[in-house]
Design goal:
mainly alpha, Cytochrome Bc1 Complex, Chain D, domain 2, 8 helices, about 45% helix
């Protein structure tokens, strides 16, 4: 009986210490913080188990040029801001994230994943990573198109690659401030002679 009470007491003590550690403000929650022991292992194990259980096994669209081209449009509009374009570095948003979003056109990326696994991630998102769920903003067809594109990223045609270019390839992406450019002050317009923002 004393042994069982000791085990229960030990478990409660460890749980209590962990609880107060997280409430103390000392837990690593900032992007630049060192990860906790086993954090990566536990998060990946839980994610893989859930995906293996729920991902669709059958791909409901044809693996053809039209699907890849449509997927490239979806990717450029929704994914590239974090995951980057082919042969280009990821943007400033990705550099400020933890964990860093993978560059999906660099190396193997997700070409060794089943399309259903990528579809699950696109549809459901991944908690505490910055990866959003797109099931309420993209159609089923769009989520499958981008998933099959990424699963076959190492086999796409030059025409599809051409579709995967930033909208403004000659300069910084639209909406991104160039280094050294001052931000407009609140209540002041950017263009001379225009009305101030109210």
């Amino acid at each position: 009986m004393k042994f069982i009470a000791g085990v229960v007491g030990g478990v409660l003590l460890v749980a209590g210490v962990g609880f107060f550690y997280f409430l103390s403000g000392k837990a690593p929650v900032a992007v630049s913080d060192q990860g906790m022991p086993f954090e990566k292992f536990l998060a990946k194990s839980a994610l893989h188990a859930r995906i293996e259980k729920e991902m669709p096994k059958d791909v409901p669209i044809a693996l053809e040029e039209g699907a890849y081209m449509a997927g490239a449009k979806v990717y450029s509009s929704n994914c590239a801001v974090c995951h980057g374009f082919p042969n280009r570095d990821r943007g400033p948003i990705a550099k400020g994230m933890f964990p860093k979003p993978p560059h999906l056109f660099d190396g193997k990326a997700v070409t060794d994943d089943e399309p259903g696994e990528t579809y699950w991630k696109v549809a459901n998102g991944i908690r505490l990573t910055g990866m959003p769920a797109f099931k309420n903003s993209l159609s089923e067809a769009e989520m499958w198109q981008v998933s099959v594109l990424l699963a076959n990223a190492n086999r796409i045609s030059a025409a599809v690659k051409d579709q995967l270019k930033p909208p403004n390839s000659d300069g910084p992406p639209t909406g991104v401030k160039e280094p050294g450019t001052p931000l407009a002050k609140p209540g002041h317009s950017k263009a001379p002679g225009s009305k101030p923002n109210l």
